[in-house]
Amino acid sequence: MSTVTVTLSNDGQIFIPKPIRDQLHWEGGRALILETTATGISLRIHPANQPQRLESLRGFLKQDRFPLSTEELCAPVDVTTDWDAAEQRNQ
């Protein structure tokens, strides 16, 4: 954790120093939540902008067709002959 002193501008803005932004991996345009607490304020990433874990994406790309077999995946591809077969398989 780091502690720095910042100054509130006349427009009500604060500047977050680059070392802090780099440490938190915050880039310009990132949405943040500013929350008042009993001792001051809390600043954190907006949930929509938080990185997602890979497990949370399980099932995201569901398919309604049969998966290819290992032999089909490993077979050499000839676009001219395989195209029609692929089209029929996907219908």
TrEMBL record:
| All residue ranges annotated as the SpoVT-AbrB domain in the record | 6-53
From what superkingdom does this record's organism come?
Answer: Bacteria
Q: Which Gene3D superfamilies match?
A: 2.10.260.10
Q: Name one GO molecular function term.
A: DNA binding
**InterPro entries per the record?**
SpoVT-AbrB_dom, SpoVT-AbrB_sf
What protein does this entry describe?
Answer: Looped-hinge helix DNA binding domain, AbrB family
Species whose genome carries this gene: Thiorhodovibrio frisius
